[in-house]
């Protein structure tokens, strides 16, 4: 099971046919359904949309070759401008600048 599927299942779990409490809870919140299978069909559709959105977000956030070249440029700039030798601080600055660059690009 992929990470997207696991998260979708956590967010939209299925219900057993004999889950009387679950069915009563659905009726309480206004979802009239006679059996768990109707609920499960709805949950399955929600899961599919969740997984599709998750995969699209992964694609949207994937680094490109252009991103890597820009990161390399930012690293060079930060190291030239830096007055510290702390690597963590330098790379935090690189990350901060890269995020700003990505936001302005989108």
Walk me through the structure.
The chain has about 110 residues and is mostly helical. The chain folds into two domains: about 5-60; about 65-105. The protein has five helices and no strands. The chain has helices at about 5-10, 20-30, 35-60, 65-80, 85-105. The chain is elongated. The mean pLDDT is about 80.
> Quick one: biggest sheet?
none
Number of strand segments: 0
Estimate the mean pLDDT confidence: 81
Secondary structure: helix percent: over 70%
Shape: elongated
Q: SSE order, as H and E? A: HHHHH
Gap between N and C termini = 32 Å
Structure annotation, total helices: 5
Report the β-strand fraction as a percent range.
under 5%
Structural class: mainly alpha
The tally of structural domains comes to 2
In the predicted model, the low-confidence regions spanning at least 5 consecutive residues are none
What is the C-alpha radius of gyration, as a whole number of Å? 23 Å
Condensed summary:
This protein folds into two domains: 3-61; 65-105. The chain has five helices and no strands.
């Amino acid at each position: 099971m992929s990470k997207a599927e696991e998260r979708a299942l956590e967010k939209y779990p299925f219900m057993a046919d004999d889950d009387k409490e679950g069915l009563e809870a659905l009726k309480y919140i206004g979802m009239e359904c006679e059996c768990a299978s109707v609920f499960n069909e709805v949950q399955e559709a929600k899961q599919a949309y969740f997984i599709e959105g998750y995969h699209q977000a992964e694609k949207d956030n994937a680094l490109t070759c252009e991103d890597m070249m820009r990161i390399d440029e930012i690293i060079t700039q930060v190291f030239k401008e830096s007055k510290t030798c702390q690597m963590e601080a330098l790379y935090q600055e690189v990350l901060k600048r890269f995020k700003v660059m990505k936001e302005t690009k989108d």
